[in-house]
């Protein structure tokens, strides 16, 4: 990274390319236009410097004296001070005029700083391209364990699994994504591909268990096994129905195995999945 020792540095015209543009391909660079006569600048400057120290290289702060570097200020059409320009990958991606609450600057920094998930995705892709598919898949699984909120990792793993024909794990990942994410590319395309593969695959046959339950609805072990197998193949609503029925019939079986099965299913699907809300309400009606 082309930077002095500090995460905060003064920039002039002759080093703008090196310190601002070039560095922006690695981390976001906040460019603070200020002047000695600008009273608000005296408030903003220390705040940004403190954030730069706190973030410890996750972003860089480039300070430009708009009076002594008028050519830069004019080029970027800076009309008032202070003005903070956010540069990422060589482009201006955001700009804030005047002194804003600290939270606004944090929001911009967090939006553009490198994520741990990005490094994981890059490492997995390099492994995949070099033919080390099992290592790539494990890298993504480990990444999900480390960064469970990063949905990009789950989508990437699901996509790679589909390429290897692993429908079950891929389906669990994709169908557990929030509904809004399921409507955002590439997820709809992946779900369509999954549906095609599932339609061509031999169907699991649960007719024996279903016939046994039709004869003996209180065959709780059979019902629990069926619910678990249905969940395994992605038949989540059918699985939830059997877990709920087991809970309704016998709370004592398997130490409330029906309720435990539903809770585990909710965790798999996530709080935004429509089945989670529906069956939480139905479960609650049995509890209270």
Alpha-carbon distance between the two ends: 60 Å
The CATH class of the largest domain turns out to be Alpha Beta
Structural class: alpha/beta
β-strand number: 5
Radius of gyration: 27 Å
Task: Kindly state the percentage of residues in helix.
Answer: 55-70%
What's the number of helices? Answer: 15
Tell me the CATH architecture of the largest domain: 3-Layer(aba) Sandwich
Strand order of the largest sheet: 1-3-2-4-5
- The fraction of residues assigned to DSSP E strands is 5-15%
Broad shape = elongated
Q: Structurally, how many domains make up the residues?
A: 3
Low-confidence regions: none
Query: Order of helices and strands, N to C?
Result: EHEHEHEEHHHHHHHHHHHH
User: Taking all residues together, what is the mean pLDDT?
Assistant: 92
**CATH homologous superfamily label of the largest domain:** Glutaredoxin
Largest sheet: 5 strands, mixed
What is the CATH topology classification name of the largest domain? Answer: Glutaredoxin
Domain Thioredoxin: 1-114
Organism: Plasticicumulans acidivorans
Pfam family, one: Thioredoxin
InterPro entries: Thioredoxin-like_sf, Thioredoxin_CS, Thioredoxin_domain, TPR-like_helical_dom_sf
Topology:
Layout: E1 8-10, H1 16-22, E2 29-34, H2 39-55, E3 60-65, H3 70-75, E4 83-88, E5 91-97, H4 102-112, H5 116-129, H6 133-146, H7 151-163, H8 167-175, H9 179-182, H10 187-200, H11 207-215, H12 220-232, H13 236-249, H14 257-269, H15 274-287
Parallel strand pairs: 1-3, 2-3
Antiparallel strand pairs: 2-4, 4-5
Helix pairs in contact: 5-6, 6-7, 7-8, 7-10, 8-10, 12-13, 12-14, 13-14, 13-15, 14-15
Pfam families: Thioredoxin, TPR_20
Keywords: Disulfide bond, Electron transport, Redox-active center, Transport
Domain Thioredoxin: 1-114
């Amino acid at each position: 990274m082309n930077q002095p020792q500090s995460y905060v540095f003064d920039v002039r015209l002759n080093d703008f390319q090196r310190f601002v543009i070039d560095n922006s391909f690695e981390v976001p660079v906040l460019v603070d236009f200020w002047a000695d006569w600008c009273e608000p600048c005296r408030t903003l400057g220390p705040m940004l410097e403190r954030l730069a120290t706190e973030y410890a290289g996750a972003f860089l702060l480039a300070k430009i004296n708009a009076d002594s570097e008028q050519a830069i200020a004019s080029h970027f059409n800076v009309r008032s001070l202070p003005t903070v320009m956010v540069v990422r990958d060589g482009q201006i991606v955001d700009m804030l005029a005047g002194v804003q609450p600290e939270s606004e600057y944090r929001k911009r920094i967090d939006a553009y700083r490198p994520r741990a998930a990005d490094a994981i995705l890059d490492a997995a892709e390099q492994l995949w391209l070099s033919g080390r598919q099992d290592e790539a898949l494990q890298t993504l699984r480990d990444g999900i364990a480390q960064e469970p909120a990063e949905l990009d990792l789950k989508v990437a793993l699901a996509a790679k699994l589909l390429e290897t024909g692993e429908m079950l794990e891929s389906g669990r990942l994709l169908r557990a994504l929030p509904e809004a994410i399921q409507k955002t590319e590439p997820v709809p395309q992946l779900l369509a591909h999954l549906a095609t593969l599932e339609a061509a695959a031999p169907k699991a046959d649960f007719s024996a268990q279903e016939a046994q339950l039709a004869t003996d609805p209180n065959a709780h072990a059979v019902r629990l096994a069926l619910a678990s197998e249905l969940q395994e193949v992605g038949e989540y609503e059918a699985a939830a129905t059997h877990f709920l029925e087991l809970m309704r019939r016998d709370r004592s079986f398997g130490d409330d195995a029906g309720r435990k099965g539903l809770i585990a299913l909710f965790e798999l699907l996530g709080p935004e999945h429509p089945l989670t809300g529906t069956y939480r309400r139905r479960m609650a009606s049995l509890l209270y």
